[in-house]
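Q: A reviewer asked whether we had any structural model of the full assembly, not just the individual parts. We don't, so I'm hoping you can provide one. Inputs are below.
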Amino acid sequence: MQSLPLLPETAPFPADQIAALNRIMGNATAEQRAWLGGFLAGHQAANLAQPAPAPARKVGLTILYATESGNAEALAGAARKSASRLGFAARTVDMADTTPAEIARAENLLILASTWGEGDPPERATDFMRALLAEDAPRFDKTRFAVLALGDRAYVNFCQTGRQIDERLAALGGRRVTDRIECDLDYDADAAAWLDRALHEIAPEPEGAAVIHVDFARAATEAPSRQAPFDAEITEHVNLNGSRSSTRTVHLELSVAGAALAYEPGDAIGVVPSNDPALVEQVLHAAGLAGDNDLHTALRERYDITTLTRPQVAAYAALTQDATLGALANDEAALAAFMAGRQVIDLLDAASHRLTEAQLTSLLRPLPPRLYSVASSRKATPDEAHLLVAAVEYDAHGRQRKGVASMDVIERRKAGGSLRLYLKPNPHFRLPADPDRPVIMVGPGTGVAPFRGFMQERDAIGAKGKNWLFFGGRNFTHDFLYQLEWQDLLKRGVLSRLDVAFSRDQRGKIYVQHRMWEARDELFGWLRDGAALYVCGDAKAMAKDVHATLLRIAAEQGGMAPEAAEVWLGELRRAGRYLRDVY
Amino acid sequence: MTKHPARPLSRNEAIKEESRFLRGTLTEGLSRAETGALSEDDTQLTKFHGIYQQDDRDLRAERGKKRMEKAFIFMARLRIPGGVMTPAQWLALEAVAQERGNGTLRLTTRETIQFHGIIKSNLRPAIQAINAALLDTVAACGDVNRNVIAATIPYRPAAHGTVAALARAISAHMRPRTGAYHEIWLDGEKIAGDEEEAEPIYGRAYLPRKFKIAIAVPPLNDVDVFAHDLGFIAIEEDGRIVGYDVVAGGGMGMTHGEPDTFPRTGDVIGFCRPEQVIEVAEKAVIVQRDWGNRASRKHARLKYTIEEFGLDWFRAELERELGYPLQTPRDFRFERSADPHGWIEGDDGLWHHVLFIENGRVRDMPGHQLLSGLHEIASVHRGNFVLTANQNLIISGVTLEQKPAIGALLAQHGLDRPVSGLRRGAMACVALPTCGLALAESERYMPDLLTTLEEILERHGLAADEITIRMTGCPNGCARPYLAEIGLVGRGPGTYNLYLGGAFDGTRMNKLYARDVTHDGIIAALEPLFSAYARERADSEHFSDFVIRAGYVKPTTAGNRFHADLSPELS
Ligand code: SRM
Ligand SMILES: Cc1cc2nc3c(=O)[nH]c(=O)nc-3n(C[C@H](O)[C@H](O)[C@H](O)COP(=O)(O)OP(=O)(O)OC[C@H]3O[C@@H](n4cnc5c(N)ncnc54)[C@H](O)[C@@H]3O)c2cc1C
Ligand SMILES: Cc1cc2nc3c(=O)[nH]c(=O)nc-3n(C[C@H](O)[C@H](O)[C@H](O)COP(=O)(O)O)c2cc1C
Ligand code: SF4
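A: Here is a predicted structure for the entire assembly that you could use as a starting point for your response.
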C-alpha cells in the first residue's frame, strides 16, 4: 500500500488524469519519483531560460465573460494570462460593456458565462443576451468560438446561459472549435482542461512550445483563496435579532490581521464551511458505514453532503439497482417532484443500500464555499472584516434542514474560534468614485450588509454625498439590524435619510418597494440629480419588486412610457448608477 | 397663574406651557422611522392623549448587545366613562389588540381598557380604529380629569343608568378642548380656533397633576370612592337618587422612604343635588388647578393641597367658587368593595353576569378562553358590556331567553368554573414587563401567590370566605392596595411590603405589617394569621377587622397616620 500523499483533488488536472497520474505515481519507486522530479524541474527551468518562440504573427483572442458573482470574470482573467503567455493577443470583455455586433467581429472567441436566477443570464448580461437571441442578431460567420458554462447542478436549468450562447452562436454561423463544457461549482480542473483544449484548437502550438498548464487553483498573489483560505479569528459573534424574533442574523467580526485581504466595501468574503457533524453521522448511517476518522473528516470538511443533483439520483439508482429510483431518474417530471426540497440524505434513505467508502464519496460533490458581503470598511476597522449571516432553517419532507454555512457560523462557531475565508472581490458593486455623488441604498435583511460598509467608508473619508437607506425586515422591534448604528449615522448627518419597511408589524405586508413608492417624488429627484442606486439582498422577490417599482416611478415621475422607463433604467445600469448585488 | 407658593415649577409645567395645547413635536416624532420612541418631552404630552411610551422590560438586558435601542412600545388607555360599552365596540377593540397591540386587552381599575405593546408605527392606525368604534383615548392619562368611574351595581340597572350617565356628563364637561388630538392622531388637519378660549377649565398649563373622580352607590363601594381626588356617594330616598355626598382628597400613591408622601382616604365635605354635581366637580378642579403644588409632582395631588391648607379651607374655597354652600352630608353605609359575582337578576327583570377576569387581562389560556369566549358572546349579546373598577366585566342586560345561550358560551370557553373567595376579590396592577415604574412583579406573580394562599385557606376551612387582597409592583398604588384587607406593595425584585387591616368595605386603609418579604415570607407571615382567624374570629367578622381586634396591626385612621402607629420592630 502506498502511503505517500498523492495529487490532491485540487491539482490542475481533470479527475481522470489525476487518477491516472496517481496510479503511475502510486506504483513508482522512490527512484523513479526522484527522477521525475528532477526532470520536471529541469524542463521548467529550461523553458524559463528560453521562452518558447511566440507565433510569428500574434493570434487575436477575445475572451468574453458574463458574470454575477465574479467566477466567470476571474476565469476569464486567468485565461487571458495563459493565452498571452502562449503568445495570443488576448483581451477580456465584459458582456455588460459590449454588444453582439461588436463581438461578431472577433475571429477567435472564448466565452465564459454563468447562469443565475432560475436559468437566467447574469443581471448585467441581460441586454447582450436579449440582442443575441433577437431575430436581428448579427451573423458570426467569421468567428471560431468555444463556450465554458458555469453553473450549479443543483439547479434545474443547469448552465442554461452558456448553453443558449453556444447553440445560438452555432446557429448564427459561428464555428465551434471545441465542445462546450458545463461546469459545476468545482470548476477549476474542468475549466483548465477546456482552456488548454480550446487554445490548442485555435492556434496549435508551434513545435517545441512550452506546455503550460493553466493552474486556476493557484492564484497569482499570496492572497487567501478558495483552495487556501485564511483562518480568521472570530472576535465577535452576536445575533442581532431580538430573542423573540422569528429569525437569527449573526454579526461576525473577524480578525484578518496578517492576511492579504484588501477588501473594498461591496466585496464579498468567501467562507469555507464545515458540515453539521450530526448530519455526517446520519449520512454514514444511511450508507451503512461506520467510517473511520478520515472519512468523518472528509464528509465534514470536503464533501457536499446536502445538495442533491440529478446526476446523483441517476448514479445512486445505478449503484443500488433500485428499480423505483431507476424509473424516477428517467422521468423528468417525477424526478423534479422528487428533488424538490430533498437532499442527499433523502436520496440515501429512498433506497437503503450498503455503500463502500469509495462509492459514497464518488457520489458526492466537493463542498462549495459560500459568499457573504463584507459589512465593514477597512478605513473604520483596518484589521477586521465584518459579516452579517442570516440563518437558513426550514423543514422539508419531515426533516429539519439547516443551511450548511449559515448554521455552521451561527450554531457551531463562537467568538474566540475561527472561520476559513478568502476574498471574493466584486468590482461591480462599489461606491461611486465621486464622493459627492448621492447614493440610494436598498437593502432589506442581510442586504444591508454592504451598505454598512459603504457608510463606514463614506464616514471615514468624509464624503459629502448624501446617503439614503431603505431597510426592511419582519418586525421593527426584533429585526432592526444595526439600529443604533443607523441612528448614530443619522444624528451625525452621514446618513441623510432612512426609510424602513417591516412586513409583519401590521396585517398588510409592507416592503421596501412600498416605501420607495411612497417616497417616489424625492427618490426620482435624487436620481435626476445623479444619485447612484444600489440594491442588495434577496433576488427571488425583493430585487424584482424593487426593479418593477423603479419602472413605475420612472413612468409616473418622469412621464415615461413603459419601454422608455426600461431604457432609462438600462442607461442607469450602464452608467453604473443602478447596481445590484442580489442572491 | 398658580397660587401655590412653591418654586421653581417642575419641568413638566414648562413642557405643558410650551406645548401649544398638547401638540409639542408629536407629528414629527411619529414620522421618524429610525426610532420606536418619541422625544422625551413629547412622551409627557402623549399622556394627555391617553398614550404612554413604555419599553418591554423583559428585553432590556439584551438590547444594547444587539445594537438596538430599548424595545419601545406604547400603552393606550381608553376613556370609557362609567365603563359602559357595546358588544360591537368590544369586537372593534379586540381587533385593535390583535392587529396593533400585543393581542390582549387589559381591563383596568378605572373601568376602562388598555392596549399594550403598540409600536410607534401602529399608534395612529390604532387610535383611528378606536375612533371608528366611537371611542377615544382623550385625557385617559395626563394632568387632567381622568376617566370618570361609576358604581356598576348590576342588581340595580336603573340606578346604574343614572350614575353612568352622570359619569359621561362629567367626563364630557371636563374633556380637554384642544384640537391637538384630532390633528395628531386622526386626520392631520390643523383645526383653527382660539385655543386659549378652547381650554376654559384647564388653561395652557392644565392641572398640576392627574385628577380622578368616582361615583358610588351604597352599599356597594366597588369604585373605592375614598381613593380619588373627588368622590360622589349617591344618596337615595325611596329608590330615587336625591343627591350626593361629596368626598375630597383621596389618593393612593406614595414613595418608599418618603414619609411626607402617603395614601389618603378622602373626607366627606358636604352634600349636593344631582344637578349641581358637574359644577361641584368643575369648581373642585379649578381650586386644585390654582392651588395645587406645581413645583413638586410628588406633592401635586389634591390630597396634599388639602393636607397643606386644611379641609375647611378647601371647602370654603370650593364654596366660594360655587357661589353657594354645600349642604350637610347625609348618612350612607357601605358593605363591600369587591364585585358581586355570577348571574344577578336586576330590578328591571334582566340578567347580568359578573365575569371574573383575573387581573383584568383578557387573553386565551389553555382551558380558559377569555378572549375567544368574549368574542363569541359579544357577537350574540344584545345588551352592554360594563367594565368594573375591580377589573371585571359585566355582561349586562341579558334577557331570560338569551341567558342559556350566554351561559353555554361561558361554559364552552371554561369561563364558568368556580373561583375562590380570595381570588375573586383580588386585584393586581400591571407592573412588569410594561410599567416603567414597577419595582417588582405584580400581575404575573399574583395568580401563583393566590394558588399557594388558597391551599392554606382551604386547610383552615376558609376557602369560601371573601378576603380582599391587592398587589402592586410599586407604591403608586394602581390597584388601590392600601384599601385592601391584605395589601402587597413591591419593594424590589421578589420583595414586598405586607399591609394588613384595610376595611372590607373600603372605608379604612391598611397598615404596614411586614417589610421586604419574599414569597416565602408572605406565606410565613399570613399562615398563622389565617389559622388564628379561623379559630378566633367573631361571627361574620372580616379578616381585616380581626387582625386589628387581635392586635396584629393598629387601624389607620387617616392618610397622615398611614406611616404612624407601626409595631415597634418596624418603626
Ligand atoms: C392600568 C392601571 C392599573 C391596573 O392594573 O388596572 C394603572 C397603571 C399605571 N399607572 Fe396607575 N394605573 C391604574 C390605576 C391607578 C389608581 C387607581 C385608581 O385610579 O382608582 C391609582 C391610585 C389612585 C391615585 O391616583 O392616587 C394609580 C396611581 C398611579 C400613580 C401614583 C399617582 C400619585 O399621584 O400618587 C402613578 C405614577 C404617577 O402618576 O406618577 C401611576 C402610573 C401608572 C402607569 C401609567 C405607569 C407610569 O406612569 O409609567 C401604569 C401603567 C402600567 C402599564 O403598563 O399598563 N398610577 N393608578 C390603572 C389604570 C386606571 C385607568 O384606567 O385610568
Ligand atoms: C454575492 C453574494 C453575497 C451574499 N451575501 C450574503 C450576506 O451578506 N449574508 C447572508 O446571510 N447571505 C449572503 N449570501 C447568501 C449566502 O452565500 C448563502 O447562500 C446563504 O448563507 C445560505 O447558505 P447555507 O450554506 O447556509 O445554506 P445551504 O446549505 O446552501 O442551503 C441553501 C439552500 O437551501 C434551500 N432552501 C433554503 N430555504 C428553503 C426553504 N424555506 N424551503 C426549501 N428549501 C430551502 C435552497 O435550495 C437554498 O439554495 C450571499 C450570496 C451571494 C451570492
Ligand atoms: C441565486 C443563484 C441562482 C443560480 N441559478 C443557477 C441556475 O439556474 N442554473 C445554474 O446552472 N447555476 C445557477 N447558479 C450557480 C452559478 O451559476 C454559479 O455559482 C456560478 O459559479 C456563478 O458564476 P459567476 O460568479 O461568474 O456569476 C445560481 C447561483 C446563485 C447564487
Ligand atoms: S402600581 Fe406601580 S408598578 Fe403597578 S402599574 Fe402602577 S405604577 Fe406600575
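A: Points you may want to mention in the reply: Chain B touches chain A at residues 33-36, 56, 59, 62-69, 71-73, 99-100, 119-122, 125 (CB under 8 Å). The mean pLDDT of chain B is 96.
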